[in-house]
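Try this one yourself first.
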């Protein structure tokens, strides 16, 4: 098995020298174990955020779509495809037992018809459920309301805006390039796009949300988020999904002002981890699959070829090089 070993804790932006590519001999299968071969790896922002919790000297974390090659575990039969929390490696021997957090180490990909298996790392997996539950359960969007989402052209954000449209809301997306904006508006049906790198954020919000924002799905945190909150309506809802604008900072985050808009606009702000809805995992996948089949939910993948290029795919995603879900094809 080829594997990326985590050598050094990141300081600021991850460096290639923080990893070591190794070749490992795998043990033979014991009763209750199976051997899985990776077909696609996922690269996600949480890997940067959670890295301080990973011990150096171990395989770096992450999910993969893998095929079971051999099995001595009836729950994971040979030939089936799974999503496994095996990290950045090509082959894994696992017993499939859940992690100590209760999160499954591996789950069988349900029947998704002719759709690509790689979607189990995106719209039909963790990012899809993050968008679905994190938006609907926390923002509680009502028809006619205005929804704003940051990180709008990414795996999670691109789905949140489309689900907002499905629910009869106005969707405004904030992302980092005009090319991304064109995709959001022309292909995904977002009503408006704001480029946080080149547009005047305040001016554009006033133009696109003249009656204020009711729901804010926050993928980025930082100053952009504090500014957005100033334009929220009374009793607005904020779903705090992530804070990627700060993940690569070496200094502690700048103090941002949230108390003022939270108080005076009487907002509700709630953070979440998608595993809150583990008991509804397959319901989420089924819902997103149905919307794809009905033509209501579109997805895009940014695919990097080759296991050896996983690090490149990871940093490219952190820099905004991806549109939709960033994955690696082995
Ligand atoms: P994306 O596909 O959105 O990829 C990351 C994107 O972040 C990049 O494409 C880039 O787009 C944007 N970005 C990078 N740096 C900055 C910055 N300084 N300011 C603003 N945007 C930036 O990733 P995901 O959809 O997988 O994740 C989106 C967010 O959701 C992350 O914060 C992640 O941690 C969080 N998350 C949380 C989960 C939970 O359970 N709470 C589960 C899954 C994800 P651009 O060109 O627009 O800058």
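Now uncover the answer:
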């Amino acid at each position: 098995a080829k594997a990326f070993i985590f050598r050094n804790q990141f300081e600021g932006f991850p460096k290639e020298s923080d990893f070591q590519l190794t070749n490992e001999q795998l043990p033979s299968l014991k009763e209750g174990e199976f051997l899985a071969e990776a077909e696609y790896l996922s690269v996600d922002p949480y890997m940067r955020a959670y890295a301080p919790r990973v011990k150096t000297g171990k395989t770096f974390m992450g999910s993969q779509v893998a095929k079971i090659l051999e099995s001595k575990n009836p729950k994971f039969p040979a030939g089936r495809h799974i999503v496994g929390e095996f990290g950045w490696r090509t082959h894994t021997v696992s017993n499939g037992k859940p992690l100590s957090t209760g999160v499954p180490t591996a789950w069988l990909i349900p029947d998704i018809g002719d759709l690509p298996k790689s979607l189990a790392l995106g719209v039909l997996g963790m990012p899809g459920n993050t968008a679905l539950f994190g938006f609907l359960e926390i923002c509680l969007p009502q028809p006619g309301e205005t929804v704003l989402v940051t990180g709008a052209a990414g795996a999670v954000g691109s789905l949140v805006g489309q689900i907002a449209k499905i629910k009869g809301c106005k969707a405004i997306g904030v992302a980092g390039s005009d090319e991304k904006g064109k995709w959001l508006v022309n292909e995904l049906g977002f009503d408006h796009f704001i480029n946080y790198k080149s547009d005047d954020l305040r001016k554009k919000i006033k133009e696109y949300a003249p009656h204020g924002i009711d729901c804010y799905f926050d993928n980025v945190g930082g100053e952009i988020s504090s500014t957005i909150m100033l334009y929220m309506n009374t009793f607005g809802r904020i779903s705090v999904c992530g804070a990627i604008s700060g993940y690569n900072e070496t200094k502690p985050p700048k103090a941002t002002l949230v108390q003022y808009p939270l108080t005076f606009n009487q907002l509700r702000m709630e953070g979440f981890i998608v595993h809150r809805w583990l008991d509804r995992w397959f319901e989420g996948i089924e819902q997103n699959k149905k919307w794809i089949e009905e033509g209501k939910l579109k997805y895009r993948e940014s695919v990097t070829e080759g296991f050896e290029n996983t690090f490149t795919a990871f940093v490219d995603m952190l820099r905004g090089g991806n549109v939709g879900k960033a994955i690696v094809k082995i």
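Discussion: The chain has two domains: 2-122+300-329, 126-275. Residues 44-46, 49, 127, 130, 151, 153-157, 175-177, 180, 219-220, 241-245, 272-274, 317-318, 320, 322, 326 surround NDP (CB under 6 Å).
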